[in-house]
Amino acid sequence: MLRANKxxxxxxxxxxxxxxxxxxTQVGFVSPPTDxxxxxxxxxxxxxxxxxxxxxxxxxxxxxxxxKIGSFDASGIPWLRHLPGQINSDYxxxxxxxxxxxxxxxxxxxxxxDVFDFLDKIQFRKNEIxxxxxxxxxxxxxxxxxxxIGTKKMSDSSGAIGIDAIHESxxxxxxxxxxxxxxxxxxxxxxxxxxxxAGLKMATLLLNGKIAGLRATxxxxxxxxxxxxxATSFKTDHEGYSQILLHPREFIFQNQNSKLLLFWPDS
Length: 267
Ligand SMILES: [Zn+2]
Prior knowledge:
It is built from 7 helices and 11 strands. The chain is an alpha+beta fold. The strands form 3 sheets. The protein has a 5-stranded antiparallel beta sheet with strand order 6-7-8-5-9. The chain has one domain. Helices cover about 30% and strands about 20% of the residues. The structure holds zinc ion (ZN). Zinc ion (ZN) binds near residues 51 and 98. Zinc ion binds next to α3.
């Protein structure tokens, strides 16, 4: 991690010294997998040339995470509940990663599991903070997105798509070979003249008929996880609305004195 990022982490955590802090800022970093010279045709990370010969028996989104998401009720943060179709373990059963590339991402699964766990029980916590590094959380969302594409659970204007629709640059970000460019990732959008329903929804973000990412509404907050340029993808998706896209410095999910804090490097 860059020194500037470390400074941001230290200074942010210092702001919350009066809380009990669960520091998850280092969880989920993965170094790129070692080259094996193997490229498994059914693995969506095959371009990395670091596959093994076995397709993973694990789910594209880990069962651990799916089970936690499934346990949320309407007052929690069920990010995935409103994706097209029911998300459960069976739904995600089809395999799209080799064993090496699946197990390489397990730190992201465990981070996402911890985040959902905390939010699920946030009302019972007292003066506690979970601190999560935003760029790593974005990689968790990217893993969900690629899992949904890789298992053909998402459709674009031409119908269901599979691993061939996954951009090479997305795979390199997911596996730690590149950072997300500045103009893509997780954003909040404030929309003038439209009131969102309370509650939570998640759906596919399409750009010119192609899958660009995920979008979610959490209460009045409209979140975009876009792998295409933020302004372009948002305008196309919400034609007719005046909008402002804000790159987050932090998102805080709060219940009384307990918070889930997602934060990013200083720009
Ligand atoms: Zn592989």
